[in-house]
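Input chain follows. Return structure tokens only.
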Amino acid sequence: MKTVLQIWIFLLLSTINLSSYGEQALPIIDSQLTTLIKSHNLTGIPTSNKNIPNINSPKAQLGMKLFYSKTLSGDNTTACASCHHPMLGGGDNLSLSVGVDSKNPDIMGIHRELKGSDQARVPRNAPTTFNVAFWKRVLFHDMRIEKVSELGITTPDVPYPTIDPLAGDTLVQAQARFPITSSDEMRGKYMNASFNQTMRRALAKRLEKNWLEEFRKGFDYADGSAEDLITEQNFSEAIAEYERSQVFINTPWKNYIEGNKDALSTSAKKGALLFYTSQKKGGAGCAQCHSGDFFTDEMAYNTAMPQIGAGKDNGVTGSNDYGCNLVTKKEDDKFRFRTPSLINVEVTGPWGHAGAYTSLEAVTRHMLSPIKSAKAYDPSQLQQKNIALKDLKQNTQEAIDTGIHITPKPVINESDVTHLVNFMKALTDPCVKDRACLSKWIPNENDNDPDGRTLHALNGKTGERL
């Protein structure tokens, strides 16, 4: 049995290999983590001086009703919440979302399907809305919503990187204006040949019939007219207020940083050491990209994620997805996708820009050895039917050949995966697993439903409400 002194000397030399040590090594692990926490300037709180809305505020309550209203879709069948439900991690638990033309618009999760035998049309996984208020620079997988300066935000409605004068005041408001313009997500065939802004204005006009009192309460304007209050800028602002109120950061890791050394398991602590220690010192170096208290540098990288699904009409096959290149048109941006935040990552799968990985263990193995994992990718893990796979190998190989931006870990033990996954599970706020806790962000069946089109999502297997 090694003495504590021998363990300490070993740690000084190799920094990270703790797999052979038991509980007696915990004080040393805690000491090393304390040093790493200080060196990475971690506080456990993603950012300070953020004006986070209260879910009980009138504007956030209006935003919640709009977020769950099918009225904002072209055919009155699909809501924002159809792809972003709190009980599904702020996403939809699908690799590739199903928006319009679903068999049953009220069903969510892995049992949500398109009508007929159509293949999944939405090319990317639905990012979580949880903690969306903490993004400072970019939104969407391909970063097509970007704060380009203190003066404003660029969006797909204007040439990149031109500032969009209608983007709104926050990244979240700018983002909220686009799912309703996507023919596969919410627009359907409604006004399909019209400009995005024309459609948004038409939806605002649609709301005038039944929503005036809700907008008066939400914007505290008792005598406001429909013409003044029910505008696309106001409904996107209210939706953003609701989304930005979804703050879930009270994690075991935060508690650990604040001094509770019992907040993490031994395995999670070993995972934290791997996560924050560079590869040169024997770690995994995850924090190089998943940096800071929000666990993202808000940059984009090619990590050779398997290219499943319909893609974005790119490449020789016409079914590849060039990621950020579609926004910037820069050759070097092909296959780059945004670094996701890892807070609550346990509940926000499937993982990857197209949801190729359906377990946290699988995506962790990929990030430790991207090329090996991508070439050996097994699509049988996909729970969703009708995902296009015929060009999977060719499209993924093109991503690999373009050049990945991540260094594989030289030696990977299965224990590394276990420890890293356990650390990432310590980034979960218990509230996101608790229906009672999340109930403030989900409309009650007894709430006022302005036009009878509120989505009360159902579990497709049990028929129960989510």
